[in-house]
Design brief:
Blueprint: E1 8-16, E2 21-26, E3 30-36, H1 37-44, E4 52-56, E5 61-64, E6 69-76, E7 86-91
Antiparallel strand pairs: 1-6, 2-5, 2-7, 3-4, 3-6
């Protein structure tokens, strides 16, 4: 199994519901990539993978969980000068929409 040739920081975000918001704080420009478990496995094997996010030029960055499931957040230095210091926190997710009664 080959690995990515650049340094990265991995955050296991565990099970999250759709609409949950992740806030990522960075000390420098880096890539911020949010991916499901299958794509994280492909990332670790240096295969093509899909993700939400991209180059983070400003900090903090907010990403929204697109669907329920187990999520991984990667901060990596691919294409940049070094690996940024980073921190991650979950912000309160929007409440589920309430059904309104017809009057």
């Amino acid at each position: 199994m080959s690995k990515p040739t650049f340094r990265f920081t991995h955050y296991d975000m565990k099970e999250q519901r759709a609409g949950a918001i992740i806030e990522v704080t960075l000390s420098a420009v880096n890539n911020v990539r949010l991916m499901n478990a299958g794509n994280f496995q492909r990332f670790k094997e240096a295969l093509d993978f899909k993700y939400v996010g991209g180059v983070a030029k400003k900090s903090p960055v907010k990403l929204v969980i697109p669907e329920p499931g187990h999520w991984h957040l990667i901060v990596d230095m691919e294409g940049h000068h070094g690996l940024a210091d980073s921190s991650v926190k979950m912000l309160s997710a929007p409440a589920p929409a309430k059904q309104q009664k017809a009057s």
